[in-house]
Amino acid sequence: MDFKRQGILGGTFDPIHLGHIHIAYEAICKLNLEKIIFMPSGNPPHKTDKKITSGKERYAIIKEAIKNQPYFEVSDYEINKNGMSYTYETLEYLNGKYKNVKWYFITGADCLAYLDKWKNVQRILDNCTFVVFKRSGFSNKDIEKYKSYIEQTYNKEIIYLDIPLIEISSTDIRDRIKNNKEYNYLLPEGIGKYIIENKFY
After folding, report:
1. Distance CA 8, CA 25 (A)
2. Three-class DSSP category at 190
3. I need a surface site. Which of 24, 26, 100, 119 has the fewest CB within 10 A?
4. What NCBIfam families does this protein map onto (predicted)?
5. How many beta carbons lie within 10 A of that of residue 70, not counting itself?
């Protein structure tokens, strides 16, 4: 049976920026994926103490940012879901909804350091191929250490995407908007204007 190869790129995306787009395109090329689905988080359990822009607004910004990108989609599953957003539930939902798809869950390498604290790790790894990209502050040696530990503990392969880093911070973008500093060069084309016109920040 032939499986479609599709990626999931999750995050708060508050807002989505060129760093996210860069990661998505690199994953498509290096993993030979047909599509990337951006999955803005609803109520992530690890960010309960942080103020996050509403899911509806973050979803709208992503949708606008990728409207001319044929390889990208955005899902509102997590932002419409009641309660906390858990990765294992998202993956099981996607596997139930879409048949004959091999999912690649793409996240930062820093997640490997605390993946053991995620809920139902085995169910996550059973429902996708887990892919990590490099994060600042994590050396290749650090990543390999965490990668080996997870692979041995759960008997699953982890893919490491060694791609160039584009250091952009959503927090910095929000601060720039608030303080009337230039930020358009950090965002997909037209998104700065879209954010201001809709008074999202």
Report:
1. 12
2. coil
3. 100
4. cyt_tran_rel (TIGR00125), nicotinate (nicotinamide) nucleotide adenylyltransferase (TIGR00482), PRK00071.1-3 (NF000840)
5. 7
Q: What count of residues does the chain have? A: 201
What would the pLDDT profile of 70-102 be if each residue is shown by its tens digit?
999 999 999 998 878 899 999 999 999 998 999
In this structure, the number of other CB atoms found within 10 A of the CB of residue 198 comes to 12
Residue type, 102: K
Strands 72-74 and 101-108: unpaired
Which residues make Cβ contacts (< 8 Å) with residue 200, sequence separation at least 6? 15, 53, 57, 60, 61
Which string of DSSP letters, residue by residue, matches 15-81? T--HHHHHHHHHHHHHHT-SEEEEEE-SS-GGGTTS----HHHHHHHHHHHTTT-TTEEE--HHHHS
Q: Contact at 8 Å (CB) between 176 and 185?
A: no
Sorted by where each starts, the structural domains of the chain and their CATH numbers stand as 4-167 (3.40.50.620)
pLDDT > 70 fraction of the chain, expressed in percent and rounded: 96
